[in-house]
Amino acid sequence: MRLFSFKPLLLLSLAATLGGTAACTDENGNPVLFSIEDDKALGEQVAAQTDSTYRAKGQLLERSSNARAYQLLDGVVNKVLNSGQLQYRNEFPWDVKIIKDDQTQNAFATPGGHIYVYSGLIKFLEDESQLAGVLGHEIAHADRRHTSRQLQNEYGISTLLGLLLGENPSQLVQIASGLGQLKFSRDFEREADQYSVIYLNQTTYSCDGAAGFFIKSEAQGGANTPEFLSTHPNPGSRVQDIQAKAAELKCQGRSVSNSNFEELRRII
């Protein structure tokens, strides 16, 4: 029955796409062919498929049996979400889930605000500001609609609209399984970095938290390079750009308690 409720929205999106109207661009003039409702609907389908895949592997940490871990993680996520800087804070559902894989240091976001973070990434990080910074980066990818636009570039608008109509379920499996390896443009990465700083500026965290992660990642190098960097390329100026934005906003160097973060690392 839900497919029928999607159709008017899909037709509106398709009409906008074919008509080439102003609704096809965001506030910066970048093309966005999906409506916000389509973002939410696609994200819901991709998240459901992702949940199913990792649940079948026994790797999805369920909230019902990991309540304390999610209480601690939600505490970080909600500070970022409630920074007052998100475009779609009230439109997207914004949930976060942990994938139990200590060997993978990665995180990714679906369209519509479903965030996934691997236990390996949480354990790799050194403090709560770094966790907030990386989560802020992923939240920015969803809130700035980078994920939708990148999927649109890679698969085409007709394929994505078809998924929302329940067509080609094997394509949905492919998209969901590949989301953690989705490669964004340098412009998208730069914007996500900048917004991570902007979000954290309105919290108690040191707003250059993401830079600390990248510095540690680059120092390791070689075979130990985190999975996150294979999909989030790190040009030489990236850490400097984050730090420059933090200096501009005068929000770096803040000290916060890491007791909750250390507990989270122990129990996942």
Automatic annotation (TrEMBL):
According to UniProt, the name of this protein is M48 family metalloprotease
Q: Which InterPro entries match?
A: Mito/Outer_Membr_Metalloprot (IPR051156), Peptidase_M48 (IPR001915)
Question: Is Metal-binding tagged as a keyword?
Answer: yes
Q: What are the TM regions of this chain, as residue ranges?
A: none
Cofactor binding: number and manner = Binds 1 zinc ion per subunit.
* Pfam family, any one: Peptidase_M48
Q: Which GO terms describe its molecular function?
A: metallopeptidase activity
Q: Which species is this record about?
A: Hymenobacter volaticus
Record domain Peptidase M48: where: 74-244
Q: Which domain of life is it from?
A: Bacteria
* Listed cofactors: Zn(2+)
The family this protein is said to belong to: Belongs to the peptidase M48 family.
Q: Which UniProt keywords apply?
A: Hydrolase, Metal-binding, Metalloprotease, Protease, Signal, Zinc
Which segment of the chain is annotated as a signal peptide? 1-22
Q: List its EC numbers.
A: 3.4.24.-
- Enzyme superclass (EC): hydrolase
